[in-house]
Amino acid sequence: MTPRRALPDRSAGADGEVIRRVLGGDREAFRVLVERYQGRAQALALRVLRDEEMARDAVQEAFLKAYIALDRFQGRSSFYTWFYRLLMNQCLDTRRRDRSERHVAYEEGGVSEALREGVEAGSSWASEGAAAPALRRQLGQRIGEAIDRLPEGARETLWLREVEELSYAEIARILDVPKGTVMSRLHNARQRLRELLREAGVVPAGGGSSGCGGEGKA
Fold first, then answer.
1. What is the CATH number for 28?
2. How many Å apart are CA 140 and CA 117, to the nearest integer?
3. How many domains does the chain have?
4. Same structural domain for residues 147 and 197?
5. What is the C-alpha to C-alpha distance for residues 145 and 199, in angstroms, rounded to an integer?
6. Are residues 202 and 116 in the same domain?
7. pLDDT tens column, 108-122
8. pTM of whole model > 0.70?
9. What are the residues whose beta carbons fall under 8 Å from the beta carbon of 188, sequence distance 6 or more?
10. Are residues 66 and 141 in the same domain?
11. Buried-most residue among 37, 82, 157, 163 (CB within 10 A)?
C-alpha cells in the first residue's frame, strides 16, 4: 500500500471528494488518503506496538482494510476517525498475537502516570519500594494482564483514555457512541480493573485508589 508518487490533491484537504473518486472507480485516488495520514498512523502504531516493523505492517494492513471497506464508510465522522479505529483494532490484534511483547506498552511507561500511580498508591508492593525499576516493570505487567482480561469495549475505552490520553469527546467520536456512554464504560472499566488487580494480589482487599487513573480532561 506504500505509494510510489503523490497524486494532485484536487480536494483541497477534503477527504470526501477523494473517497467519492475511489468509489467511482478511481482506485489510484486512495493514495491521497494514504499519503495524507500515513505519518500520523505510523506514529500511533509505533506508540502502541513499540516495534517499527510491526507498526509498519499494522499500518499497511489497516489501510488495506480501509480500502476494502470504504464503501461502508458513512461519513458520520471524519475519515481519519473511522480509520483510527481500524488501525487501533489492528494494533491491538497484533499485540495479542505477539505474546512475547504483550505488555511492553505498560511496562515501559506507555500507560498514563495517573493510572500507574493510582495502582501504586494502593498496591501491596508500595512498602517494598514499587518505584524500583524491576518492581515497576512487574507492576506494569500485572496491569497489562488485568487490562487484557477486560471486555473489548472496556479495554478499548480504557486504552484510548489512559494510554492515548484522549478527551471523552474525542473517544466518543472515535467509538461513535455518546459521551455519557464513554464515561460509563470508563467508570466500569476502572472498577473491573481494580477487582482484577485485587484478585492478582496487587491491590489488597478493601484497598486501592478510587481512581485507577485521573479524570483529567473531559
1. 1.10.1740.10
2. 11
3. 2
4. yes
5. 12
6. yes
7. 444 555 565 566 555
8. no
9. 154
10. no
11. 157
